[in-house]
Design a protein that fits this description.
Blueprint (H helix, E strand, L loop, with lengths): L3 H5 L2 H16 L8 H14 L15 H12 L6 H28 L1 H13 L1 H6 L5 H14 L8 H15 L5 H17 L10 H24 L3 H13 L7 H26 L6 H18 L13 H12 L3 H4 L2 H22 L8 H13 L6 E2 L18 H9 L6 H8 L3 E2 L6 H10 E3 L5 E6 L6 E6 L3 E6 L7 E3 L8 E3 L2 E7 L6 E4 H5 L4 H8 L1
Length: 541
């Protein structure tokens, strides 16, 4: 005799969910590589080194994500394949987000609709790919959805509202975009609550106060911690001032007008739908549609910088709203075969789109692993490496700001000084990954560094002529050697004693080679660890 659980939920839904998780694992290295992944990993690594966030490493996100994932970075220290393992860890947030969406759908519409919501939302191309990357937004959207799941479809209780507030507060400690979610949610709740008939269940003041207490708890803990460590001012700049001073929305007045018009239309449609349905209780289906719609409109028309990850927290709830409406379509409920065929068609289109956008047989992390392995090979933990956003993860950067979209905008407009060259010189930075560098900094790297493979450059010069006597202009002080491409060459620098390696200060130096054909001068540590011009040519071939 079957148990009640087996009678309610047959085996095939579990198989479907298992296949979805298998797909996630099959795509671990196939998700499109995003520069944010290395940046977040670098911030988490900084926690393991005892480096204060916002002071020693730039971050414009809340501190919870970096702190929580720092044990992983400590465990994976100096591993070139670190991003694969970090992406694997993100599957927890993926499961939590879909579990919360399914939990809400099951309460509202039953397990069949819940399964459809989980499968369609979980395989939705943008959600599937972006949530597979190592980024703060994965944890952010999972905490938000888990918070909603405590109050959706159940009688209001103070402890439920506290848990919702606590999880939303955790989400706020990950990303400031939570404020946009809170604003659109409160607007939707106020409107729908005003439409409730007399006698319908309502959350009382105790519930709302519990939610506020939960909301403030975790941010308050971090606020006190930052103040105790004297980085509150730096955190305020990274979390607020930096983001507010970013790129402005083009045609802001026109965009605001569109937002007001479309937002008003969404409000009217929501009110009409609530009155038409007349459920006699809070209409969660309309709530999810209205909140998700307002959030999308606000991001599209008001938010200054739109990214793919901004949409993660509302994609499952919008699917949930559509699934709720579809569950009441009589023409569909009376045709089980049509329902199954429609679901398979939707999932098939989603899967084909995912494969077309990110083929699972392509390793998107291969180049990143090779680049990171090269940097780890040439450098020690005490060495600084100049990269755009912390791409080398396990090495400190000499330049505090990250070269992301807002910083690039500031540099182009002259709103932020390009001091990269000064930082390279003052920190004695011998390795550079010159992506996204401004023009002047790129020119400096080309003149004072040599390619070491991939996009990694090490301090040095390639000689234009193989003369025994060379005049060298050194811009980055450090230990250098001269090579014929295979071995070290001895000689004298500035009429000094014979040697095969020298510490060269900044300035002009006269080199006289005792024997051999000089090809290049290069950072001694890179040569000792395998840098050769001939190996570089072989790599290019």
């Amino acid at each position: 005799m079957k148990s009640p659980l087996q009678q309610r939920l047959p085996i095939w839904p579990w198989i479907s969910l298992l296949l979805l998780l298998v797909l996630r694992l099959a795509w671990l290295n196939a998700y499109t590589l995003n520069s944010d992944e290395a940046q977040h990993a670098h911030v988490s690594w900084a926690w393991t080194q005892g480096l204060l966030p916002y002071r020693y490493v730039f971050d414009n996100h809340g501190p919870l994500f970096g702190w929580l994932h720092s044990p992983l970075l400590k465990l994976l220290d100096d591993r070139p394949d670190v991003l694969t393992w970090l992406r694997l860890a993100m599957q927890f947030w993926y499961v939590l987000a879909l579990g919360a969406a399914g939990w809400m759908a099951r309460r509202l519409y039953g397990w069949r609709v819940a399964l459809v919501v989980v499968l369609i939302a979980g395989l939705f191309p943008r959600f599937f790919i972006v949530s597979g990357q190592f980024r703060t937004d994965d944890m952010w959207m999972a905490l938000w959805l888990a918070g909603l799941a405590f109050v959706v479809g159940v009688p209001p209780r103070a402890w439920r509202f506290f848990m919702t507030g606590l999880l939303v507060g955790c989400a706020l400690s990950v990303s400031q975009k939570t404020l946009v979610l809170i604003a659109t949610t409160l607007a939707s709740v106020v409107v729908l609550r005003l439409l409730l008939p007399t006698g319908a269940p309502r959350a009382n003041l105790r519930c709302w106060m519990s939610a506020v207490i939960g909301l403030l708890l975790v941010p308050a803990v971090f606020l006190v911690w930052l103040a105790m460590h004297g980085v509150l001012g730096e955190a305020w700049y990274g979390l607020v001032l930096y983001n507010l001073g970013g790129a402005a929305k083009r045609h802001a007045a026109q965009q605001l007008l569109w937002f007001l018009l479309l937002g008003s239309a969404a409000l009217v449609l929501a009110i009409r739908e609530v009155r038409r349905r007349s459920l006699g209780e809070f209409d969660w289906t309309v709530f999810f549609a209205m909140q998700g719609g307002l959030y999308l409109l606000l991001i599209w028309f008001i938010w200054p910088l739109i990214t793919k990850q901004d949409f993660l927290p509302v994609l499952p709830t919008l699917v949930l709203a559509v699934g709720g409406w579809a569950s009441h379509w009589s023409w569909l409920s009376l045709r089980p075969r049509l329902r199954s065929a429609l679901l398979l068609a939707i999932l098939g289109v989603e899967l084909v789109t995912v494969v077309a956008y990110a083929p699972p047989w392509q390793d998107e992390l291969a180049a990143q692993r090779d680049e990171l392995a090269l940097v780890l090979r040439y450098t020690d933990k005490t060495d600084t490496v100049m990269d755009p956003k912390g791409d080398t993860i396990f090495r400190m950067r000499p330049y505090y700001p990250v070269l992301e979209s807002l910083a690039m905008h500031r540099l182009r407009k002259g709103l932020m000084a390009d001091t990269i060259v000064d930082e390279l010189v003052s920190h004695g930075t011998m390795v550079v990954v010159p992506r996204r560098l401004p023009y002047a900094s790129t020119r400096f790297v080309i003149e004072n560094y040599v390619p070491a493979g991939r996009e990694v450059w090490v301090a040095g010069h390639m000689f234009s002529e193989p003369d025994a006597e060379q005049v060298i202009e050194v811009a980055v002080p450090g230990n250098y050697v001269i090579t014929d491409g295979y071995r070290l060459l001895g000689g004298s620098v500035d009429s000094g004693p014979m040697a095969d390696r020298w510490h060269l200060d900044r300035g002009t130096h006269h080199v006289k080679i005792a024997g051999g054909t000089p090809v290049a001068m290069v950072w001694a540590q890179a040569f000792d660890r395998g840098w050769r011009p001939v190996s570089l040519r072989e790599q290019g071939d």
